[in-house]
Amino acid sequence: SNLIVAEDGKKLIGIVGCKGVKHKRAAHVATLVGVGVLPEYRGKGIGRAILEKMIAWIKKETKVERLQLTVYADNEIAIKFYEKLGFVKEGLFKNYAKGVNGNYQEGLMMAMFFSRR
Fold first, then answer.
1. For a Cys-Cys bond, which of 14, 86, 101, 108 suits 6, CB 3.0-4.6 Å?
2. Is 69:82 a contact under the CB 8 Å cutoff?
């Protein structure tokens, strides 16, 4: 597991986490979790910078080949952002999350693959 943060002075403004899988057959897989930048700091390249740093760390320091994440399927801004970084859409999770209004949201699995062979 690894965590990369962005700060403005002492204020935490951006974060991305990464966790691996303990199961032997999925030891080559890692999942991005908790990706976020405070609203007032968005659009300044902070998210891209911390994600690029995380991807570089994963490629250099781990044996991970598949990096995956889940995003709300209706979050077009985030989906386009991840696609620019090299993630591709893979599939939908039905009823993935439940909003405050009780409505269900679909999740979209996205991933990138870099073979170590």
1. 14
2. yes
DSSP output for 39-98: GGGTTSSHHHHHHHHHHHHHHHHS---EEEEEEETT-HHHHHHHHHHT-EEEEEEEEEEE
**Tens digits of per-residue pLDDT, 52-107?**
999 999 999 999 999 999 999 999 999 999 999 999 999 999 999 998 899 999 99
15: alpha, beta or left? (left if phi > 0; alpha if psi -120 to 50): beta
Q: Give the Å distances, CA to CA, from 22 to 28, 56, 84, 86, 89.
A: 10, 21, 29, 25, 24
